[in-house]
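Appendix B. Chain record.
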Amino acid sequence: MDIAVLGALDVRENGVSVTPTAPKPRQVLALLALHADQVVPVATLIEELWGERPPRSSRTTLQTYVLQLRELLSAAVGRDAEDAPARTAKDVLVTLPGGYLLNTSGGASDVREFERLAGTGYRAMDAGDFAGAARQLRDALTLWTGSALADVQTGVQLEMETRRLEETRLCALDQRIEADLRLGRHRELLGELTVLVSRYRTHENLHGQFMLALHRSGRRSEALDVYQRLRTALVRELGLEPSAGLRRMQRSILMAGPEPTLGAGAGGNERLSRVG
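Structure tokens predicted for this chain:
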């Protein structure tokens, strides 16, 4: 079974799509796919589908959705190369005490591949291999074709999972840009960072990286403008001042001193000082 969730939901068995079009079964499959090869409790699935006030028939209705998914799976399972009996739909979507499990039999998962590549990239960064880190993290990020589960209606569980995935995406993006900056690719980053700071108006690391790229490209006044726009957004939307690390960068650029650095933890992970 091959699973893609970093964009539109796409689950395939033997190359055949088993992704339902009906919203509720689609939610069930999405949650099972995100936790592939792990038991998803019935209570978790019910909370995803109906929130804190499920109908009395919720367990029976959930079983109906599972049956619908198994019907799609039955049309996709076949026979192996030796013409031996293939696994059945119940072997793929397994009923276990307390919940259900989507058995991939070692198939591909874009989330798992993303995490593998990103982890390799982080280790390369720690080792000072910035070219290797940039390459691995870039490969990881190309697995994203849009927002996670972009075409699935989400309840509380899927909403939490998609937020978590987006945070891992931003972390990988931040580190890939950092690696590119270490490699002197500041001019190549300007267009990308222009878009990113417009999308993430209070993300300190991205703004700091944009300031650094502009400063290195000889665009000092624009770098200072980026700082002011970020400060305005932070104060207005969050009631916070930029972090100490970003303020140091702004002063260094303002004084045209030595090349500034954002520094470890100086961006989004550092505690911000509250206004007033």
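Further analysis of this model is presented in Appendix C.
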